[in-house]
Amino acid sequence: MKNPLIVLLSDFGESDIYSGVVKGVISSICSNAHIVDLTHNILPQNIKQAAFLLKNTLQYFAPETIFVCIVDPGVGSERKSIILKTSDKYFVGPDNGLLSYIISDKGCEIYELSNSDYFLNDVSYTFHGRDVFSPAAAHLANGTDIQKFGKQIKLKDIVTIPPPLFQKEALHTWLGEVIYYDSFGNIITSLDAKEIGASFENIQDDKIITEGWRFEIAEHIIKGLKKTYSCAKAGELLAYIGSFGYIEIALRNGNAAQTLNIKSGDKIRAIKFN
Amino acid sequence: MKNPLIVLLSDFGESDIYSGVVKGVISSICSNAHIVDLTHNILPQNIKQAAFLLKNTLQYFAPETIFVCIVDPGVGSERKSIILKTSDKYFVGPDNGLLSYIISDKGCEIYELSNSDYFLNDVSYTFHGRDVFSPAAAHLANGTDIQKFGKQIKLKDIVTIPPPLFQKEALHTWLGEVIYYDSFGNIITSLDAKEIGASFENIQDDKIITEGWRFEIAEHIIKGLKKTYSCAKAGELLAYIGSFGYIEIALRNGNAAQTLNIKSGDKIRAIKFN
Amino acid sequence: MKNPLIVLLSDFGESDIYSGVVKGVISSICSNAHIVDLTHNILPQNIKQAAFLLKNTLQYFAPETIFVCIVDPGVGSERKSIILKTSDKYFVGPDNGLLSYIISDKGCEIYELSNSDYFLNDVSYTFHGRDVFSPAAAHLANGTDIQKFGKQIKLKDIVTIPPPLFQKEALHTWLGEVIYYDSFGNIITSLDAKEIGASFENIQDDKIITEGWRFEIAEHIIKGLKKTYSCAKAGELLAYIGSFGYIEIALRNGNAAQTLNIKSGDKIRAIKFN
């Protein structure tokens, strides 16, 4: 590839050397790779959050991008390492469900990552991100054929995790869940705005509020859907459509996740009443 | 451009995916761009801090560098997006004062960023950094003429914010303000060391202290100006000339901002008495 | 160099603009440099931690990599700046011991960094990382001969710091120390697993525990050496071989460093009893 882009997604946290070392490994094999941190702040071992963010951000990356995904509580066990190819991108990581949200029938292929020719010489029990996934990604970027990494696996044979909760409970009621909260305490949910018919399209007024919605979360009721954060008063809880197309809950000038004592997996209900 | 450099300045914080997604957008349009994080830790919505840091760091970047500036509390409202060209660099961001400190009469041009040919296909109400500023910056890096992004705006017509407080109160007295404090609690002020005549030039002794200064901040008095941090005793407050040429206040082996309970905008007075 | 790689190691912390400015300086001199953050989270002024991490991670970087090392409590004093060349890599930083762990007799050369032709025009008293080390690294990447930066220094003439504590106390007993703890509170020690004969090589069972070890740290006794983190029960302290080959102490689902009230330099003893 001419200007290969390798993207890192992990739960390393920001404060350690792990992501720096991974970049060293990649650069030492593919010296012209551009390396981008998608995030290293997946909540520790939260495979579902990682899978959700991966699915919802990959559209912003160019074709041929290679993602190295390291949320790997089973490292050192018998879980497989895999390379997944969609119609236009590559993903390297553990076979633990992290990559299961991006599988589709259209042009998707999966290979076991088992050929140690493409690993570092010494493979540790604790850091396959460095010793297995990163060198494989760099070799892919160098043009190594995906079939050389190991035998092909059927789509149905990889480990999957349940999709984010998203159910239509009644004609105008949907049930979703909290996926995670960001560093400002804004709560990202699985309620897909398009699917529930929430939209501000063709509405120019930036102070607009759609009154006909109610959201129930952690024994709180939030009335209305606001177009922007600035529609809410200081200290007020608000629901809005986040930048990835899902309903988010925030507390203006505050931390919604802390105030509501929210954790991943908590339920949220959306009710449309006009 | 041959090795285009795009620099990011935002209040995203470090812990989320927003900066990673912005890099994806840029790379997908301009695959050979080098992308550098100036900082993502502007205090939330603190336009003044962002404007101050931008002005004081841009000299360290090469000609033709493109800055993407995302401190954007008015996103989704009617505030304009703009591209500003100085004699040798480019700046993309909201028209909210963030870019107002770098305007000068010498070769400065401003264009509205309104041509949606250079936006992502779907523009959200909440994340113009991703959907508008980043793609525009990448197209600039690809060589798109600045006049194609929208109509030219007169310098006097963009939104400005007040300059940092810096007044000569008397022959030897200056009044300034706290711009922000860094992660160690060191307090960065608007007191320009050169302007107030504070200097250690031609002084080789690294233990030197200039006695003839007094600084008043938050009901504390700090005597003397020290050449380096190591001139102070443990637990002692000190004033020194920071690496960007402004007076800074630190607490040796401690956190000055917390100890003095300082916030952005607090006043500081410098008095020279010999 | 064709795709020069410059690696940054510092105690800046993540939240400020210092690393961004350093990247600006490097890019403005060597526009095709790839710049990687190894870490900016060295504990403030902890030269020993920086030296240890540098020594244990440089193997993951390609030949010709240039490391810029900025843990520099003596900046502004008379401490020298140096460039160190090993058989295949370059290191720029202060002469304060930071680079002393990587010196060897094989092809190692050291030069004083004193030729101000390779500095920024204005050199501050407080930020040689920006004004001296970074421009020198970028000039090196551009191919400037190392001898042009200043006069050669004998290996024995640079400042050294004591090596990490690692003593054989008895036939089966070793004494080491805590180097640092990571953001999860995992404690990284100086006990070299290979040197003390701790190994899981040729052991396929991922639930394996080697019973014949005892570790004493901060009045706690940890029995056994576990192959992976997942061998321990929730709330249990465990010893394991970390990904850089040293004994590490963790608390499953907790923060070992906080719970044990550990700090850098605390002692740890390993006893093998079968």
Main features:
homotrimer, 274 residues, alpha+beta, Rossmann fold, Elongation Factor Tu (Ef-tu), domain 3, 2 domains, eight-stranded antiparallel beta sheet, seven-stranded mixed beta sheet
Your description of this structure?
- Three copies of one chain form a homotrimer.
- Chain A is of the alpha+beta class and 274 residues long.
- Chain A has two domains: 5-157, S-adenosyl-l-methionine hydroxide adenosyltransferase, N-terminal (Rossmann fold); 166-272, Beta Barrel (Elongation Factor Tu (Ef-tu), domain 3), CATH 2.40.30.
- Chain A has four helices and 15 strands.
- The first copy, chain A, has helices at 18-29, 47-57, 128-141, 256-260, and strands spanning 5-10, 34-39, 66-70, 81-85, 90-94, 109-112, 152-153, 166-170, 173-181, 187-192, 209-217, 220-226, 237-241, 246-251, 267-272.
- In chain A, strands 8, 9, 10, 11, 12, 13, 14 and 15 form an eight-stranded antiparallel sheet that branches. In chain A, strands 2-1-3-5-4-6-7 form a seven-stranded mixed sheet, with helices on one face.
- In chain A, a hairpin with a 2-residue loop joins strand 8 and strand 9.
- In chain A, helix 1 packs parallel to helix 3 (128-141).
- Chain A starts with a strand and ends with a strand.
- Chains in contact: A-B, A-C, B-C.
- The interface between A and B is medium-sized, with 30 and 30 residues.
